Every structure is written in C-alpha cells, then in structure tokens.
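Translate sequence into structure tokens.
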Amino acid sequence: MSIHKMIQLHPDVGDDFNEPLADAARHAMFCSLMCTSCADACSAETMDMRQCIRSCLDCADVCDATARLAVRRTGQNIEALRAMLETCANFCDLCAEECERHDHDHCRLCAEMCRECANDCRKAVPTVQ
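Result follows.
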C-alpha cells in the first residue's frame, strides 16, 4: 500500500498530484515512528537520556501532525501547511542534532531519518500553492 497512491486517488487531486508533498508526508509519517522508537530505546539506556527522549517525542508529535496535514487534499490551508512543513524541518534538525550527540545505533538511525525528513519537508514547501 502506498500513501502516494492514496493521495492520487483523492477526487480533488486528479492530475494535480504533488509528489514532493507526498514524499514529505511519507517521510514525516516514518520519522514520527522512528523518533518514538528512539525515545523508547533511550529510556532503556543506563545513562541520562532525558533530553534526547524529549527531543525525539517532540519531533514525533510534530512529524505526525505534519503528515496528517500533508495528506489532506479537500479544501486548502496553504499557509498553515507551509508553516507546518517548515516547523517539521526545524524540529527534525533539532532532534537530529541531539541524537548525533550519542553513541547509540538507535540514535544514529533516528538522526539519519530526521535529516531525510527535514530535507523532504524543505523541498515540499515551494511546491505548496
């Protein structure tokens, strides 16, 4: 199953499919889950990982909200969607920076996903019209 296909099937999309926006929605959805999983793994570490957990959970919530806004095609709320994509990219950058401070494989993977998500969100912003 593909979120791209689901968006394309929306009656209001037709030939006006926005691939960069669909890519951002997909990455934000995955990033939300990766950040949630990283936060959970951080909670099992023996060292104090409170800040990383907080960064991951905040990022997960923003990514989840961004994905949900990005897949809605009925009506328009262009300024809100652009702001959400930019916010998501910023939160992903912050989370990646925090995760990169730690020598845990789950943090490295989370940081990588956050960087990819931030990149896709930034690519999508100018395409939202």
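Note: The chain has a mean pLDDT of 94.
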